[in-house]
Design brief:
alpha+beta; Phosphoribosyl-aminoimidazole Synthetase, Chain A, domain 2; single chain; 21% helix; 4 strands
Length: 96
């Protein structure tokens, strides 16, 4: 919607321990789940916003930044990977 791309830092994305365990058991990628109940916010001052949210009991973290390029990059400790949106929610693999 913004016309921007993004660089997302994989290690900054919070994933619940339970989610990791279930995904490992069923060989699923937790980053390809729908993530109902989560919200992504793009703003100019992410540090200030996360502090304000945290001060009000709302967990918030910075997981990346918008870029001028139109692609989405997932940044890991070792490499940057251009990613495409998943075709469907990862959970559908379990029912197949």
């Amino acid at each position: 919607a913004s016309g921007c791309g993004a660089k997302v830092y994989k290690n900054e994305i919070p994933v619940l321990k339970e989610t990791k365990l279930i995904c490992e058991h069923f060989d699923l990628d937790p980053l390809k789940l729908i993530s109902s109940g989560c919200m992504l916010i793009a703003c100019e001052n992410g540090v200030r916003l996360t502090e304000e949210l945290s001060d009000n009991g709302i967990k918030a973290v910075i997981i990346g930044k918008l870029t001028r390029e139109k692609n989405i990059i997932l940044s890991t400790d070792y490499q940057d990977i251009m990613i495409q949106p998943p075709e469907s929610d990862e959970l559908y693999k379990v029912s197949k």
